[in-house]
Every structure is written in C-alpha cells, then in structure tokens.
Amino acid sequence: MAATRLISVVGKKDAGKTTLVVALASEFARRGKRVATIKHGTHPAQVDTPGTDTYRHYMEGMAAQVLMEFPGGRVMFERVDEEGDPIALVKRYLSAEIVMIEGFTKAPLPKIEVHRSAAHEQPLYDAARPEARLWQAIVTDDERLRLSIPVFRFSDTSWLPTLANLAWECAHQLAG
Fold this sequence. Notes:
With 176 residues, the chain is of the alpha/beta class. The protein has a single domain, classed as 3-Layer(aba) Sandwich (Rossmann fold), CATH 3.40.50. Helices cover 24% and strands 26% of the residues. The protein contains 4 helices and 9 strands; from the N terminus they run E-H-E-H-E-E-H-E-E-E-E-H-E. Strands 1, 2, 5, 6, 7, 8 and 9 form a 7-stranded mixed sheet that branches. The chain has a two-stranded antiparallel ribbon with strand order 3-4. A hairpin with a 2-residue loop joins strand 3 and strand 4. It is globular and about 55 Å long. The termini are close together.
C-alpha cells in the first residue's frame, strides 16, 4: 500500500472544524480515495445506550476493549490511560490513503485552520511562532484577513477542490 497522508484541521471552538473535515473527506471519497478521520474530543464519547449489550460490556464488564460489529460497520471502544498522538493512532488502527485529523493542534502535522470571525477575533495561526510553518492554509469568513499562507473564503464558490488539492500535496506521509 502507498503512503498514508495525514492532514490536521484545527481551529477554535465552534469555528467549523467538523464541517470542513466532512467536506474534505467527502471530496476525497468522491475522487476515489480511501479516507479515514480522527476526531479529538474534549469529553468522553457515549458508549452506546445505557442498558444495551455494548454499554454493559464496557461499563459493567469493564472490558479493556469492546468491538461492536453490526451490518455495514463496526465500532471499537478502548480504555486508555493517556491520550494517544494522531500518528500513533493512524499506525495502530487505520488503513487509508488520506486521514483527516480534527483537532490535535499541538501535533507536528500540516494544518488547515478554520477561523470564524463571528466566534473568535483572531485565528490560532501566528506567523511569529515556530510552529507557524505547519500551517498550510486558513478557511475563514473574515474578508479582511490577509496572511502569508493561502486564505480561502467561505464566500468563494470553488475553494473546496482547490483546498483538497493543497491538502493532498502538503499532507504528512507515513511510509506504507
């Protein structure tokens, strides 16, 4: 298998990170790429519905791992002592041509930031910081924002395919 490409979508709360991850993942899938996503959450995910078998396996049985198989898919729940880093998670769990990673702002991966001026005055990107070299582009609603990296406007009509091309080219590559 060829190298797996990793690109991180970052931004402050309510900026639209999930919307962009979903749009890019859909665009890559439309292009025939095998896509995977990783979401960094700030609160525990719901392990099925209380009282269901999966919930009972994990919560009552205290299983270290629960793999739920169902028609058309599967879900894995796993207990961990510390957060993993996205590169290690991809290596352990995922098989894809490109992995869209939501969050993990501090990970040393190429980043596309989503910035909504209605939610936050300034983006995370700061050209003066050493990690600024990881930022590849920003998607924003701020018509006044001018930066030394590509800035895509939500109001533009063709930014998604162009951004997908940029993401593909600048993504971190794991050896296959």
